[in-house]
Design brief:
This protein is mainly alpha-helical. Helices cover 45% and strands 9% of the residues. The protein contains 20 helices and eleven strands. The strands form five sheets. It has a three-stranded antiparallel β-sheet with strand order 3-4-7. The protein has a two-stranded parallel sheet with strand order 1-2. A two-stranded antiparallel ribbon has the order 5-6. Strand 1, helix 1 and strand 2 form a beta-alpha-beta unit. The longest helix has 16 residues. The protein starts with 6 loop residues before the first strand and ends with a helix. About 2% of the residues have low confidence. It binds one RNA strand of 76 nucleotides through helix 4, strand 7, helix 6, strand 11 and helix 11.
Length: 489
RNA sequence: GUCCCCAUCGUCUAGCGGUCCAGGACAUCGGCCUUUCACGCCGAAGACGGGGGUUCGAGUCCCCCUGGGGACGCCA
């Protein structure tokens, strides 16, 4: 058998939407697997029945696929280690719980959540780290049996061996060591019989043959426990790498911030998968190549050793840059679909969609901006921005009379020829020629200045394209409106 | 509260004792190009959090402070 040298995994719990932090973890794992021609596995950790939601299971899968992070093993791709949802692995867990209990490596604990909370509070008050006091560690068989018969439902705790030094080599942080005495006996099975994270997560990694686990720094202190657990179970442990978390632009935890951080939200706003991937891949990871890269290229350049150890801030300005790069690589037809998602289609005359895309594609970053241009070009004839108004007034009625005359005499199809003749007629050129035209045709002269809160507007689209797209009649109308504007002053 | 981790331009980062009066990218600003804008090209401004050490020499090593993050759950 030629087992893949590398198997990574992403193991989300479907208790909420995928956010930037989750997805970055998934991305790094996918990249690592791809880098080594290995397998990227997806496992759904839905052991918390109370908080897991089926729609999230669906959503996370489709979002992963949308991002191009297809798993080679997992739901819908059984490679013999399934089921890939923890809710379906009960029998597997039971067997290993039994092994642990039989070996005396775990024990039933009858302490109530309230007692436990009180104990923690007391320890904290006393300036000590909260740790399980070991109340039930020494219960006799008889007592355990009696309490269970009396109707009590115990949890199962892992008996942490004392006096041990746990060492492991973290893929991104280097050598780590922790004394086992700083770890309290922890729960591996809840009172309702379901497995707790420490247990099911570590066990499944071992059972599924996962070789490398890249996960959030928040799991760093879990690792020694899982290592101990795996050792007790006699199972191989994967190599762990703990990556720094992503924080909001102001440095605060992402989880405590509003704004778009869920993948769904970002997707709905129109961000492209490639933009997200390129942005995320560089958050906490240095790439030799600065430019936009495909998933494959990113994988080739990926190295856990290049992963940063300090929290990286998610700054949407950077994401917007990658969005522009991703947009530049998209085809017109795809972009039309993308623009239409924000309703740009509602304003467009039939058959104009691709011309519209070509006209504005370099001037938009989000579909909403495309919609705004569609409205501007096809639905808002006569709407003039104050600055456009000023430019029109300054150009003067004579300019627009000449512009209308030139429209009669010159070919309407040739924008260059048109502007050349207009230049001759008015004696204007460059800015003086184009700005009044732009003002009349789009009602905007410096859209960028209008960006404001939304940051939506970009610079104006190529005037020649606008001219062509609008067609002769609308162009005439807009020029006439500009003329009226001058005359009414 | 206790323990752990981290700390270079506004942001993402390079830097693994001298080759760093700290390099790149994004953003910003200026110029060139273009019969407008954008793109592109050129350029500017912009950082080693503070204090002690170690060393001939520290962004790079050690300590303290400060700041940030994380863990301490019958969440994952």
């Amino acid at each position: 058998m030629t087992a893949s040298p590398v198997k990574t995994r992403f193991a989300p719990s479907p208790t909420g939407e995928l956010h930037l932090g989750n997805v970055r973890t998934a991305l790094f794992n996918a990249l690592l697997a791809r880098r080594h021609g290995g397998v990227f596995l997806l496992r759904i950790e839905d052991t918390d029945a109370g908080r897991s939601r089926e729609p999230y299971v669906e959503a996370l899968q489709s979002e992963l696929q949308w991002l191009g992070l297809q798993w080679q093993e997992g739901p819908g791709a059984d490679a013999g280690h399934g089921p890939y949802r923890q809710s379906g692995r009960g029998p597997l867990y039971a067997r290993h719980f039994q092994a642990l209990e039989a070996a005396g490596l775990s024990y039933p604990c009858f302490c109530s959540p309230e007692t436990l909370a009180a104990a923690r509070a007391a320890q904290r008050r006393a300036g000590r780290p909260p740790r399980y006091p070991g109340t039930c560690a020494g219960l006799s068989q008889a007592e355990v049996r009696a309490r269970i018969e009396a109707g009590e439902r115990p949890t199962l705790r892992f008996r942490v061996p004392g006096g041990r030094q746990i060492r492991f080599e973290d893929l991104v942080r280097g050598p780590q060591h922790v004394g086992s005495d700083t770890i309290g006996d922890f729960i591996i099975r809840r009172a309702d019989g379901t497995p707790a994270f420490f247990f099911s997560n570590a066990l499944d990694d071992a059972l599924m043959g996962v070789t490398h686990v890249l996960r959030g720094e928040d799991h760093l202190t879990n690792t020694p426990r899982q290592l101990l657990l795996l050792e007790a179970l006699g199972l191989p442990a994967p190599r762990y790498g703990h990556i720094a978390m992503i924080v909001a632009a102001d440095g605060s935890p992402l989880s405590k911030r509003g704004g778009s951080r869920s993948v769904r939200e970002l997707r709905e706003r129109g961000f492209l998968p490639g933009a997200l991937i390129n942005h995320l891949a560089r958050l906490g990871h240095a790439y030799a190549h600065e430019g936009y890269q495909s998933l494959d290229e990113l994988a080739q350049g990926f190295d856990p050793g290049h992963l940063g150890r300090s929290p990286a801030r998610h700054d949407e300005t950077q994401l917007l840059h990658w969005q522009r790069e991703a947009l530049a690589r998209a085809g017109d037809a795809d972009l039309w679909e993308w623009m239409a998602s924000a309703g740009a289609g509602a304003y467009l005359p039939a058959g104009k969609s691709l011309d519209f895309v070509r006209t504005v594609r370099d001037n938009v970053r989000l579909p909403e901006e495309a919609r705004a241009w569609a409205a501007n070009l096809f639905a808002e004839t006569g709407r003039l921005d104050p600055r456009a108004r000023a430019v029109i007034a300054e150009a003067g009625a004579e300019f627009y009379r000449a512009a209308l005359r030139a429209l009669e005499t010159q070919g309407r199809d040739d924008f260059r020829a048109y502007t050349r003749s207009l230049q001759k007629a008015t004696g204007t050129k460059g800015r003086g020629l184009f700005m009044p035209l732009r003002a009349a045709l789009t009602g905007e002269v410096d859209p960028a200045a209008d960006a404001g809160e939304t940051g939506l507007w970009q610079h104006g689209p190529e005037l020649a394209w606008v001219w062509q797209l609008l067609g002769p009649e609308p162009v005439r109308r807009r020029l006439e409106l500009a003329l009226q504007e001058c005359e009414s002053n």
